[in-house]
Write a structure and sequence with these properties.
single chain, 294 residues, alpha/beta, UDP-galactose 4-epimerase, domain 1, 9 strands
């Protein structure tokens, strides 16, 4: 499916200030492609210098039309706080199609196609039932979650608190996800396909803690906390309940062996190996530095 109108080659990136979205914007810029960063507040947004921004909020339908206008492709990221996707994400998809968007690349989740408990599954269903070409990216757990969601517990307490038991996870570097996303947004041969994205090896959280301990030069512990411990810890950390419940589902998938599958998709699309967890840890080591008392 194609659109030959002026502006049809411009790409709109949602989640443009996030872990993956920011990198997608940067990769598209490097490739010389016209890209717009969709952000809640263009005045306060920290995106790639020189990239045009447009105000967009999934929960503010008035922002849909101006944001989607003159864009032929969309990189779609579900904000973590949105779990009722039928009331905000679905209408946004419909508005994008009405505005002329013909290709949507959706940042989904490994195993989403068989897991009705995660909101990603319902977004995939919506895209499949909509008159748009959809390309699905199904990555495993982001390595970068250890420098966002779990940064403080690692830096402050030297602990990893996740209810994954001894299950293995095929962690992937978000920079690799973004590189794949940019490639499939640019090259028509990838349109309409689903890509399961993982790193090169599936690790237990004991192995993750060992790598972090080695790289940081101090002990990082993983004590195999249960679900109740994780829920209590997450509430103490101030995480909202919808986010906690989605994360719990993801960790339980790993606990019961559903996140261990590795693929060669990253290497196939990018023509280079996916980054290893050790390389990620070395690149981000300063993120886990202990903060000195004021």
């Amino acid at each position: 499916m194609s659109n030959t109108s002026e502006g049809s080659t411009r790409i709109l990136v949602t989640g443009a200030t996030g872990t993956v979205g920011r990198e997608v914007v940067a990769r598209l810029c490097d490739a010389g492609k016209p890209v717009t960063a969709a952000v809640r507040d263009p005045r306060a947004a920290d995106v790639v210098p020189g990239v045009p921004t447009v105000r967009f909020d999934f929960e503010q339908p008035a922002t849909y039309g101006p944001a989607f206008a003159d864009h032929g492709a969309l990189f779609l990221v579900r904000p973590p706080a949105i779990t009722r996707v039928w009331s905000s994400i679905f209408p946004a998809i419909d508005a994008a199609v009405r505005a002329g968007v013909r290709h949507v690349v959706f940042l989904s989740l490994q195993g989403a196609e068989a897991n009705p408990l995660v909101p990603h599954r319902w977004i995939e269903w919506k895209l499949a039932s909509t008159d748009v070409t959809a390309t699905l990216l199904r990555p495993s757990f982001f390595m970068q979650n250890l420098v966002t969601t779990h940064r403080r517990e690692i830096a402050r307490d030297g602990r990893l608190v996740v209810p994954a038991g001894t299950g293995r996870t095929a962690f992937i570097d978000a920079r690799d996800i973004a590189a794949v996303a940019a490639r499939v947004l640019i090259e028509p041969r990838y349109a309409g396909r689903a890509f399961e994205l993982t790193g090169p090896a599936a690790l237990t959280y004991h192995e993750v803690a060992d790598v972090l301990s080695d790289v940081l030069g101090r002990t990082i512990r993983y004590d195999e906390p249960g679900v109740l411990d994780f829920l209590q810890h997450s509430r103490r950390e101030g995480r909202p309940w919808p986010f906690i419940l989605v994360m719990t589902g993801i960790y339980l998938t790993a606990r019961f062996g559903g996140a261990a599958r590795t693929t060669s998709t990253v290497a196939s699309v990018l023509e280079r190996p996916a980054r290893s967890f050790r390389r990620f840890a070395e690149d981000y080591a300063t993120a886990w530095e202990r903060q000195r008392p004021a």
